[in-house]
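The protein record quoted in full:

***
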Amino acid sequence: MGDLENSAGIPALNAGGFDWSAKALNKVDKRANEDSEDEDADDTPKKKKRRKANITIDRTGDLDANGPQSVSDFERLLLGQPDSSQLWIEYMAFQMQLSELSKARDVAERAIKTISISDDKEKMNVWIALLNLENAYGSDETLEEAFKRACQYNDAQDIHESLASIYIQSGKHSKADELFQTLVKKFSQSPRVWKNYADFLYNTLSSADRARALLPRATQSLPSHEHLRLTLIFAHLEFNSASGSPERGRTMFEGVLSTFPKRLDIWRQLLDLETKQGDQDIIRGVFERVVKTKGLKPKGAKDWFKQWSEWEEKNGDKKTQEKVKAKAEEWVRTAGQKKANDGQDGE
């Protein structure tokens, strides 16, 4: 959805900040394997074990190279990096590798209390990890409790959206749907929640009709200056979603361009979407309509003809290329005549 984000200026739903249960546990699995190799090494003859027992081993280098491999390693590192959410989250995942759910929760609580109050992002990362933890291993009750507390200590909208992302990632789509319904009621003044819910309905649930029903609700809730952006977002979704309808998207663009015919940025959005659709006749139609727009500025016309010419070089033939060149020359002549006439009228 990169094009949608760039055109609309509203970021897509954050996927939860940390996929701690996967990435961090992978690290822990690696360390566990290393630990098992160490255990195999312990099967060496007792004489060798006695000789090594009297030697003090400096494992600082190993810790730097391999990362923490035990509770004491994590505790030692946290003394020097108490504000590192990544380290705390890895510690939580390490405890889960040992099937220590209660200890993983304790680590999260310690992290929340320990991380500096000024490091909001680091604290937020731990809260999200805790929600991930409860979603994966806890109960509905423990998750609800953690969620309510997270809302008290963080931006409530961010927490709602993070939990929605967690639900989506874990395949709990009905729960995500319920949470989105709460989101658009509690935070109806935020364009982002409407965009994210629509994206979820179009792309995850394939419920285009439900998504379309959101737009009139959103425009009633949002200030008028947000309506254009949101309408374009929904038009993009119609083009880009498997459950959407490019024809509906075109109709939405037509409505917008009838009000803003000189907005080349909107025309370019439509052109990009049609280019992805690949119908050359429709693409040429967009190019031709723009150059016929009244009041088109010379610089805008120059850039547009250049883009059209480059497109024809890649997709057209000599005849279509010559046609663009002729239209550009005609536009320049017409614009020059109009300018001359306007000058005479002003005398």
